[in-house]
Fold each of these.
Amino acid sequence: MTTTEDPTETPTETPSVVVAVVGAGGKMGMRVSRNLQKSAHTVRYAETSPAGTERMAAEGRTAVSTAEAVDGADVVVLAVPDTVLGVVSQSVVPAMKPGSILLTLDPAAAYAGLLAQRADVAQAVAHPCHPSVFLERTRPEEYADNFGGEAARQNVVAAFEHDDQQKRAVAEDVIRTMYGPVDTVHWVSVKQLAVLEPTLVETVACMIGQLLKDALHETVHTVGVPEEAAKAMLFGHVQIALTNTLRGSNPFSEACLIAMDYGRESIVKDDWKKIFRDDELDSVITRMLKLEKIER
Ligand SMILES: NC(=O)c1ccc[n+]([C@@H]2O[C@H](COP(=O)([O-])OP(=O)(O)OC[C@H]3O[C@@H](n4cnc5c(N)ncnc54)[C@H](O)[C@@H]3O)[C@@H](O)[C@H]2O)c1
């Protein structure tokens, strides 16, 4: 279906399809459009803001109306903010071609049941994993590509709750193109994808990243340790902490384990695992999408 030996190469997809990107001038819209533009697919771009339209024009892409973009498209990518995905889907889905695919880039709206449904339109959600912290990067372009979608290989986790495997293959082709270079597309349920993002990676991993930044700030600005010394110590230890815990590379020393226990007692609440409960997932997604509650 998709072949490439060279990670710098855009994968070749067969067969080519018509893809509409709605919200093509936003952060993700620009990223996915850049890769789709290089592919064999026919791509149409829709964007409503003047700033987004200018960003697209600067890269040689012209915006058409959403109606024109969606008309007859095989895959419609909604790259609009999650808070308007429901409303945008209400106008887009009725205009979609029978047998086409609606592709969103984050599970929250799908999980909350906000997307317009049609029996003859399949829905897929695909979230990029970003290049792994353990990725072996050999070229400068790979080191420079933190987000993924340019030179560093990444994986994707996607959901497609529909039986048609052929249609899922079409979705996978578009997903591999827009997030490429991609190693593996992992297929899960919408709910599992929602547990991965936000719970595992935003609620936990991104929060810990910000906590590290806050701790660095305290070390430098409250305690007065020279900034470069603090950064040198922290950045090396973030690396060893991750490889020791996630890959079992080295055992922590006994004293380090005692300090880690002190950190857990001081920083982490005893009931922190409640974030994996269904009602907590509903609660965080309700907050993220600025809803009153999730209706099911
Ligand atoms: N930003 C990220 O790092 C990231 C990563 C993975 C997934 N996502 C997902 O990608 C999607 C888009 O997020 P983003 O961060 O790119 O948002 P963004 O705010 O940067 O861009 C959204 C774009 O959609 C346009 N838009 C809004 N309403 C529109 C409409 N009715 N018709 C056409 N265009 C419209 C806006 O003008 C804007 O250019 C979301 O589902 C988000 O969760 C974002």
Amino acid sequence: MITGAGSGIGRALAQRLSRLGSPVAIADIDEAGLEKTAASLSGPVLRRVLDVRDATDQLRFAGEVRAWLPDKLAAVFNNAGVAVASSVRDAVPEDDDWLIDINFRGVVNGTRAFLPILLEQDEGVIVNTSSVFGLVGMPYQSAYCASKFAVRGFTDALRQELRGTGVRAVNVHPGGVTTNIARNARVRKDPEGLGRTKEQMAAQFEAVTLTSPDKAAEIIHRGVERGKARILVGPDAYMFDALARVAPTHYYWVIERLQARLRARQKETAG
Ligand SMILES: NC(=O)c1ccc[n+]([C@@H]2O[C@H](COP(=O)([O-])OP(=O)(O)OC[C@H]3O[C@@H](n4cnc5c(N)ncnc54)[C@H](O)[C@@H]3O)[C@@H](O)[C@H]2O)c1
């Protein structure tokens, strides 16, 4: 089962798992995106328009998935997520709540809805998508970082509770992946005061991404198969993780310089 399967990493995961012969239950709030994903799959697929914020509907969906599956439920990918770019000072509470309801509460809802199925089987994996922004704090990403740190804490706590059962809980920390996340973000104004449009900011984000959705899906799938508890996606994710450990209060000094270099490289290529 994969949420947020109408685009990006979720779609690539559905395509990979389906290609490898697994039936996939895919959910997304975006019906058109979901249809496009479903059309790209050749194996059995259960598609479901779902808002991950709706705990009752997640529970209903879990029942549908269980009834539909010919065999055990192998994995639950709570992957759906959104972004907001804003300074803390100018934050619009409604935008931050929207993000936290999807990125954090959506993961909690999905975990609670599907966990009983896995526990009953005494087998399976809950795979929750955090981010490298669940490892370090980044300027103008306060709500996003808070939601992704929350996913990490929630999933780590769950992992300890599951000791002694056949069920596992996994945190995924992607670095930059070339998806629609920045284009789907809520941005009221350029938080850095540079007057950039949302389109320009999305292009800058894409210029510093190092991993394709297909590659991300491969890394996540292989990590789950290998029994990892936390999966870092992309070379930048390893860098963020190392920096957070060796320079827990000064990592941004390095990240800022790296970002400036990547942006300059993008300008050179564009020019
Ligand atoms: N792209 C990156 O660089 C990156 C980095 C770290 C973490 N992530 C995380 O990876 C996950 C997947 O994001 P992506 O990059 O593929 O982005 P994406 O925008 O391409 O896909 C996200 C999908 O989630 C769906 N979605 C949004 N709100 C929803 C809701 N309320 N209910 C159900 N579905 C909803 C969207 O419709 C979309 O199809 C997210 O949790 C994101 O935070 C992405």
